[in-house]
């Protein structure tokens, strides 16, 4: 094992890590309130521990840390499984809120700090509701040309960037083929974007079907909270759905989004699962 990894393993070998899942979007979480694990080490841990088959496997890794403001109970650093740091993660937010409540660290409702801003969380057993940061940079009716085809799409930032494309039959949506092309499309440079495919249900303004190609996972995930929120918000702005929408995710679980347009607020609610806690073995980071 190289010296850097050896030093990192010595730092974390006696620490408990936690694994939680929010509608199939799963995360490894460390309590890093002493900030022993640096950001650079968080990036390494995400890339090593999120690997399926060779390690724990997850869509992202989260370090919980002290807040920089008294209006927050804690802060976090969020890393995608490719090691890239993201400003926000809706399902990750639901998982950390469930964890800190279960561990008795904080009693919800509370706020916590992310790079996108303060996130409000309410925990009721396995069900967690979070308020995202206000949606920004809304762009409707974009024509996105790729070397494969052109697409009518919409864009909004719900803490992280999201493109939304309406698709007739979600089962047949080329999520990874087209997702990849749009995720890196020049109009979204340099940060890139997540890409959501959304199917409307005839005559039902309370229900959508969604699949998401996720930036930083560089694949389709089973659910994406900020993606569901972006898709519901854009559908609402286009007059296609009501203020409360249930979204059927790839995992088969339902995420519910509430749009408080007057406050420019989006609430995301769904179930969470607390699936594991334990210590890391050295081979998990080799
Ligand atoms: N799955 C997350 C999104 C996490 C961040 C995303 N991968 C990005 O880098 O933009 C969610 O539930 O919002």
From TrEMBL:
<feature type="site" description="Could be important to modulate the pK values of the two catalytic cysteine residues">
    <location>
        <position position="214"/>
    </location>
</feature>
<feature type="binding site">
    <location>
        <begin position="214"/>
        <end position="215"/>
    </location>
    <ligand>
        <name>substrate</name>
    </ligand>
</feature>
<comment type="similarity">
    <text>Belongs to the diaminopimelate epimerase family.</text>
</comment>
<keyword id="KW-0413">Isomerase</keyword>
<comment type="subunit">
    <text>Homodimer.</text>
</comment>
<dbReference type="GO" id="GO:0009089">
    <property type="term" value="P:lysine biosynthetic process via diaminopimelate"/>
</dbReference>
<keyword id="KW-0457">Lysine biosynthesis</keyword>
<keyword id="KW-0028">Amino-acid biosynthesis</keyword>
<feature type="binding site">
    <location>
        <begin position="90"/>
        <end position="91"/>
    </location>
    <ligand>
        <name>substrate</name>
    </ligand>
</feature>
<feature type="active site" description="Proton donor">
    <location>
        <position position="89"/>
    </location>
</feature>
<dbReference type="GO" id="GO:0008837">
    <property type="term" value="F:diaminopimelate epimerase activity"/>
</dbReference>
<dbReference type="Pfam" id="PF01678">
    <property type="entry name" value="DAP_epimerase"/>
</dbReference>
<feature type="binding site">
    <location>
        <position position="25"/>
    </location>
    <ligand>
        <name>substrate</name>
    </ligand>
</feature>
<dbReference type="InterPro" id="IPR001653">
    <property type="entry name" value="DAP_epimerase_DapF"/>
</dbReference>
<feature type="binding site">
    <location>
        <position position="80"/>
    </location>
    <ligand>
        <name>substrate</name>
    </ligand>
</feature>
<feature type="active site" description="Proton acceptor">
    <location>
        <position position="224"/>
    </location>
</feature>
<feature type="binding site">
    <location>
        <position position="194"/>
    </location>
    <ligand>
        <name>substrate</name>
    </ligand>
</feature>
<protein>
    <recommendedName>
        <fullName>Diaminopimelate epimerase</fullName>
        <ecNumber>5.1.1.7</ecNumber>
    </recommendedName>
</protein>
<dbReference type="GO" id="GO:0005829">
    <property type="term" value="C:cytosol"/>
</dbReference>
<dbReference type="InterPro" id="IPR018510">
    <property type="entry name" value="DAP_epimerase_AS"/>
</dbReference>
<keyword id="KW-0963">Cytoplasm</keyword>
<comment type="pathway">
    <text>Amino-acid biosynthesis; L-lysine biosynthesis via DAP pathway; DL-2,6-diaminopimelate from LL-2,6-diaminopimelate: step 1/1.</text>
</comment>
<comment type="function">
    <text>Catalyzes the stereoinversion of LL-2,6-diaminopimelate (L,L-DAP) to meso-diaminopimelate (meso-DAP), a precursor of L-lysine and an essential component of the bacterial peptidoglycan.</text>
</comment>
<feature type="binding site">
    <location>
        <begin position="225"/>
        <end position="226"/>
    </location>
    <ligand>
        <name>substrate</name>
    </ligand>
</feature>
<feature type="site" description="Could be important to modulate the pK values of the two catalytic cysteine residues">
    <location>
        <position position="162"/>
    </location>
</feature>
<feature type="active site">
    <location>
        <position position="89"/>
    </location>
</feature>
């Amino acid at each position: 094992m190289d010296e850097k990894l050896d030093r990192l393993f010595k730092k974390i070998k006696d620490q408990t890590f936690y694994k939680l899942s929010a509608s199939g979007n799963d995360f490894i979480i460390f309590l890093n309130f002493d900030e022993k694990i640096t950001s650079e080490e968080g990036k390494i841990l995400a890339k090593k521990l999120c690997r399926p088959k060779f390690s724990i496997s997850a869509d992202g890794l989260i370090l919980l840390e002290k807040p920089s403001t008294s209006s927050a109970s804690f802060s976090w650093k969020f890393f995608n499984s490719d090691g890239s740091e993201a400003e926000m993660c809706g399902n990750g937010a639901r998982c950390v809120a469930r964890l800190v409540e279960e561990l008795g660290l904080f009693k919800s409702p509370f706020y916590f700090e992310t790079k996108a801003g303060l996130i409000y969380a309410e925990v009721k057993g396995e069900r967690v509701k979070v308020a995202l940061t206000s949606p920004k940079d809304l762009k409707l009716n974009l024509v996105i040309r790729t070397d494969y085809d052109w697409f009518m799409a919409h864009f909004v930032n719900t803490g992280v960037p999201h493109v939304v494309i309406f698709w007739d039959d979600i089962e047949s949506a080329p999520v990874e083929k087209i997702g990849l092309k749009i995720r890196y499309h020049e109009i979204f440079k340099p940060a890139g974007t997540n890409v959501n495919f959304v199917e409307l249900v005839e005559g039902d303004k309370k229900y959508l079907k969604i699949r998401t190609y996720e930036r930083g996972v560089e694949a389709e995930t089973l659910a994406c909270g900020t993606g569901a929120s972006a898709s519901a918000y854009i559908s609402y702005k286009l007059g296609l759905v009501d203020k409360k929408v249930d979204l059927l995710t790839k995992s088969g679980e339902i995420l519910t989004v509430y749009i408080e347009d007057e406050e420019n607020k989006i609430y995301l609610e769904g179930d969470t699962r607390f699936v594991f806690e334990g210590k890391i073995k050295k081979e998990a980071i080799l």
